[in-house]
Design goal:
The chain has 429 residues and is an alpha/beta fold. It has 15 helices and twelve strands.
Length: 429
């Protein structure tokens, strides 16, 4: 073993990152969302970076994993997935991942979401030590830049009174005109030409009107709508028929593979998912039933960059499209997404990214979108550098929090403004 590549230290830094009041089917984003930054340090001085969810369950798994990694080589990535990570199966089984809006939670998803950050950090460290970009470690890039889609949200103008948060300059978006205005800002600031609306917030007819308004404002440009399973099968079929001429795809209109298969059989709009296909074990039923036509991968909960490529290969074998899902994330995750997306030949849809919504980051330089794309870095590793002052500032926010914001809970955030709010029972409509 090359001792220069031996792990001598692993640093875990939970942070709270400012988040705007973006609305979804579960409620509203909290003023701050938890993320976990992972640093893997080698004997040769290379430090690799990773990022994942920062809720307590993830942090509690990351700590013993960090201890087990010390003394191993950063090249021994396969062995990561054989390390013991104890999860209380009964406690997590069947619970809805309300914060991530990514279907039913499971022990395996929880493990992989933690392992992914360590895998990325190890690949980053390898790349830095060898002078190679991460995409070279994954077989090399097939594109020079990765296209991303503008991620549109119904949004309040500010968090509720009394909630500490720096105001943003996006303003409110609560009707079709507001959504179109938001989309124009995305196009002007970042050059996006593909648009996705997070739905499941208002009755379907209001969201249909918003998509039609977008189609009129941006004729011929790709549009997506994602209500996070808020609709019944009949409602999904009705909306699909009304938007058949303007949608690139409809994402998770209803919950579960059987319901998605019923919708897919009854409409001509491709269906995408990041809720009913989120593990390799869920692929067989969904693909054999033709329940989905596009899988939105997410390296965080699929177990990292190599598993993302494995998923893409399976999708190609079945003639299923592939793109990328996004949750609230910082630049480390965007860099990782871009590196792996650059290596996937069958990536034919623009990827999702929340990054433009995040006013804070832990990098010395923000990653730029130009013409709706992120250039694939040729610098060693992920090609990004950590801003330790910002990392420390966001960590202080986490340490000073009384615990309420350390768990993402969009329903709890909504109750600050609407005390009677309860997590909606799906389908809502």
């Amino acid at each position: 073993m090359n001792r220069e590549l031996t792990v001598v230290d692993v640093r875990l830094t939970p942070v709270l990152v400012a988040d705007p009041p973006l609305l979804n089917a579960q409620g509203v984003h909290q003023p701050y969302t938890p993320r976990l930054i992972v640093e893997v340090v080698t004997a040769g001085g290379a430090t690799g970076l990773g990022e994942t969810y920062g809720d307590t369950d993830y942090l509690e798994l990351a700590r013993p994993l960090a201890e087990q990694l010390v003394g191993r080589s950063v090249t021994d990535v396969n062995a990561l997935f054989g390390l013991g990570l104890d999860v209380d199966e009964e406690r997590v089984r069947g619970a809805l991942d309300a914060g991530g809006l990514r279907g039913v939670r499971s022990a395996d998803k929880l493990r992989l979401s933690v392992l992914s950050a360590f895998e990325v950090a190890c690949l980053d460290a390898q790349g830095r030590a060898l002078g190679l970009p991460v995409h070279a470690l994954l077989g090399g890039r097939v594109r020079d830049a990765v296209e991303y889609s503008a991620y549109l949200f119904y949004k309040w103008g500010a968090h509720p009174d009394g909630v500490p948060y720096e105001p943003d300059d996006w303003g409110a978006a609560l009707d079709p005109a507001g959504i179109v205005a938001q989309a124009r800002l995305f196009a002007e600031r970042y050059g996006f030409s593909s648009f996705k609306l997070k739905g499941g917030v208002f009755p379907p007819e209001q969201e249909v009107a918003a998509v039609h308004a977008l189609a009129e404002a941006f004729p011929g440009q790709p549009l997506r709508l994602d209500p996070n399973g808020a609709w019944s099968v009949p409602t999904s079929l009705k909306v699909a028929a009304e938007l058949a001429d303007v949608l690139e795809y409809l994402e998770d209109p209803t919950l579960g593979t059987p319901a998605m298969a019923e919708v897919a059989a009854g409409c001509g709009v491709p269906l995408a998912t990041n809720m009913c296909v989120t593990t390799f074990g869920e692929i067989r039923e969904a693909f054999l039933r033709d329940a989905v036509q596009v899988v939105l991968s997410d390296h965080h909960y699929w177990g990292g960059l190599r598993n993302t490529r494995h998923l893409a290969a399976i999708c190609a074998a079945f003639g299923v499209g592939v793109s990328m899902h996004s949750n609230t994330h910082l630049g480390i995750s965007l860099a990782a997404m871009t590196q792996v997306a650059a290596t996937v030949p069958n990536l034919h849809h623009a990827c999702d990214s929340h990054y433009p919504w995040q006013s804070e980051d832990v990098l010395t330089e923000r990653i730029e979108f130009r013409d709706g794309r992120v250039a694939v870095s040729e610098r060693p590793g992920l090609g990004v550098e950590l801003d330790r002052d910002e990392l420390a500032r966001l960590h202080r926010r986490w340490t000073e929090d009384d615990g309420r914001l350390r768990e993402r809970d969009d329903a709890a955030a909504m109750r600050v403004a609407e005390p009677g709010w309860r997590t909606p029972v799906m389908p809502r409509w």
